Amino acid sequence: MRAAKRKKLEYAGWRVADAKEFLKLSDAEMQFVEVKLALARLLRKLRTGRKLTQMELAERLGSSQSRVAKLEAGDPTVSVDLLVRSALAAGATKKDLAEALSSKRR
Fold it and tell me: Containing domain of residue 69, as a range?
């Protein structure tokens, strides 16, 4: 959030916090969330980069389009194992996975 917007909200009496503080997550829990989101972003990047539809990726995975949408959204019901297996099915290399997990954006 931009500093000006944050200041304006705080001046209006709003309390501004990040997801970790709002959800009262531990450092480990926050890191786990960031890992899942990084894998979800990687999966979407791979799929779109290979010009695959969600349906085409679902067929590769033996799953459904709605499940692929949940994977890409980082849905809480999706396991890290499934995210990794899906990324590999979409063509990810070990290097791609490592780069996604070590990204500054996390």
Answer: 26-102
Q: Is residue 98 part of a domain?
A: yes
Is residue 97 a part of any domain in this protein?
yes
Burial class (CB in 10 A: 0-12, 13-18, 19+), 55: exposed
How far apart, in Å, are the Cα atoms of 35 and each of 1, 64, 71, 74, 103? Answer: 21, 23, 13, 10, 10
Per-residue H/E/C for 30-90: HHHHHHHHHHHHHHHHHHHHCCCCHHHHHHHHCCCHHHHHHHHHCCCCCCHHHHHHHHHHC
Q: What is the pLDDT of residues 44-95, one digit of tens each?
A: 999 999 999 999 999 999 999 999 999 999 999 999 999 999 999 999 999 9
How far apart are the C-alpha atoms of 10 and 58, rounded to whole Å? 45
Q: Taking residues 18-32, what's their average pLDDT?
A: 87
Burial (CB count within 10 angstroms: exposed 0-12, middle 13-18, buried 19+), residue 60: middle
Question: Is residue 15 domain-resident?
Answer: no
